[in-house]
Amino acid sequence: MTIPNLKSPSKQSDNTENKNKGSETLVLILAGVVVCLILIIVIILFIPSPADSERQYQEINNEKEITNLSEINEAIKADNEKIINKKTIDTLDKVFNEDIKIDWMLKKSDAENNNMPVWAEKKYIIATTLAETAEQLILEKKYKLAEKNYKEAIDSIDKSLNEQEEILNELIEQAMLELENEQLLKAKELFIKAQAIEQHNKIILKGLYRIEHRDEVINLYRLAIENDENNDLESAIIHLNKALLIDPDYKKAKEKLVEVEQKKNQQDFNNAISQILEDLENNNLQEAQKGYKIARSLSPSDPVVNDIKIRIEKKIKSLAISKLQRKAANQERKEKWTAALTSFREILKYDPDTSSAIMSEQRIKLYIKLNKLLEQISSKPERLQNENVLKSSKKTLAYIDSELTQKQTILYPLVKTPILEKKINATKIVLKEASVEIPVTIKSDNETDIIIYKVKKFGKLIEKTILLRPGRYTIVGSRMDYRDYRKILQIKASDRKVIIDVRCREKI
Question: What is residue 482's DSSP assignment?
Fold first, then answer.
């Protein structure tokens, strides 16, 4: 039988106590771990990110409109105090990172080389203030926060340098606006800031030139206004053009020039119209046409211009017709009927419905016809030796007399056409003379054959008397072994009697 190993009460108590102590230590360790986790979470939640910090400083720039270094410094210190107060434990490193300070110094030098203190003064002040605060934090051995300030300062410089072109455009735009609003000092200040970014920018140089010469431009502009009020529009235009030659973009001068030129244009137009009407009244068509061209160039769409054109055309037509009518009347007086007909036809080209020209054309055509008929009779009187021709010519003369009588409404009295009257009388004489028969006695030797061309073949005869009308006749005698006898016989109406001896005397 085995006897159990029994422990004394004191030893059992010690074991129990050791177990309790182990449990308590484990609980303490777990509690410590939990506390550490809580602290880490709190730190993560309460320490702001660099972006939050930059936003906070941007709000300081936008909302508080910081204007001097002391205000910026106070604002940044207050903000840093808030950040420090939110920390529940000291998270600062024991050693400061000197590289970030060197980066800042290089970035600051870069900003100054780019004249950033001039064109981005507020942002430059914020950056330098952040750097100064960082220096103070280093003295206080708050290295993490100091590094953060340097980083934000560098970021601010970088952002401004990256926005340099955009800032340049904004400065120029704002300067131009101030210049248009006559805020010359403000405009000049903005242009100078912009020039710190780009010294030889043409827009900036032009803007500064405009500011420099603004007084001269304004004086010319005021003179132009006085000229306009005194209705001296030409002088006003001269002064405005001089002003715009100095400053082509001066809005007031440009607008005033448009206004004055419109007034001058209307004034010139009215003067041109008045002069045209005066020239038309005086029948000075050449000057009226010049004036019309001027008026049309000044105001081509004005209905008055078209009315003037119609008036000039009517006047030209009227004067041309009058001139041609005078010319034609003079030609009729001189009985130059063909030339007169040409003149009246030119009149009808201007106005086909001119009744007087139509009637005159008919009258002249009739005169031309009558003259041609008379000329046909009188131009070759020898034709009248022919009985048929003589009868026809007498009928023609009778027709001419009839036309002169029946068409007295369109023809002039015969006394007003002396050339025609003379032709008619001469034709009557020719016909009368052509109707006379003159006794012609032909004597021969009864050996010669005799013929009168276009009259008769008489043969051999000793003597024969015939009647012949005035004219030229060819008499030929022929005989065997003798040379022919040939003679031109001219018989006149005034001849009483004609005797001719026709014999072939010369032997062959």
Answer: B
| Helices and strands per DSSP (H, E), number in the chain | 19, 7
pLDDT band at 40 (very low <50, low <70, confident <90, very high): low
- Residues 6 or more apart whose CB falls under 8 angstroms from that of 385 comprise 434, 454, 469, 471, 473
Query: What SS3 class is residue 318?
Result: helix
Residue 362, number of CB atoms within 10 A of its CB: 13
Look up residue 133 and give its two tokens. 């605060």
Query: Residue 219 belongs to what domain range?
Result: 214-281
Q: Are 213 and 184 in contact (CB under 8 A)?
A: no
List, as one string, the DSSP characters of 194-209.
HHHH-TT-HHHHHHHH
What is d(CA 160, CA 121) in angstroms, rounded to the nearest whole number? 10
Task: Report the C-alpha gap between 429 and 381 in whole angstroms.
Answer: 11
Of the three residues 102, 127, 162, the one that is the final residue of a domain is: 162
What are the pLDDT digits (tens) for 352-384?
A: 887 888 889 999 999 999 999 999 998 888 888
* Same domain, residue pair 61 and 146: yes
> Which contacts of 323-330 are long-range, i.e. CB under 8 A and separated by 24 or more positions?
324/350, 325/356, 325/357, 328/360
Domain membership of residue 489 (yes or no) is: yes
| 75 and 154 assigned to the same domain | yes
Residue 292 located in a structural domain: no
Cβ atoms of 273 and 308 closer than 8 Å: yes
Domain count, the chain: 4
pLDDT 10s digits, 57-103 = 344 444 444 345 456 556 556 665 555 544 433 444 568 899 999 99
Cα separation values, 224 from 220, 250, 429, Å: 6, 14, 91
What is the value of pTM for the model shown?
0.51
